[in-house]
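Notes taken during the Thursday session

The instructor put the following on the board and asked us to keep it in front of us for the whole hour. The protein is PaaI family thioesterase. We were told not to look anything up and to reason only from what is written here. First, the residues (150 in total):
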Amino acid sequence: MSTTESTAPSGLELLRQVQSGAFDGAPSIGGLLGMRFDVVEHGRIVVSLDTRPDFANPLGTVHGGIAATLLDSAMGCAVHTTLPAGVGYTTLELKVNYIRAARTDGQVLTTEGTVVHAGRRTATAEGKVHDEAGKLIAHATTTCLILPTP
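Then, after some discussion, the predicted structure tokens were revealed:
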């Protein structure tokens, strides 16, 4: 084991650093969109954001890519919480079902990602996005490829 691996945080530890604001990493999609890590547990992540007008599609509602990004982030990070230090992942597949439109007027969207299966080579997770009234906006599943330490 290299020195880098022995001092590197596990996936869960890294995401808890992100949640607390202690992570001093590069700019991220979460920062760009204003995502907040509300819950970070082994196999489970809850992220939220406030919608804004620049999230709009041509119809004036939140673009589906925002929901897809929330889902990909929450589910992928849920997988990451199950990984040891030095092990990464990448999304192999993302399947999103859109249920209803979300407004762009500052409403809070909350997304929960939960691991279904964490294996040595692949992991699967599921996620749901709800608006602040608790209405389901979208739900999804993912398959992630586990990237072992080189």
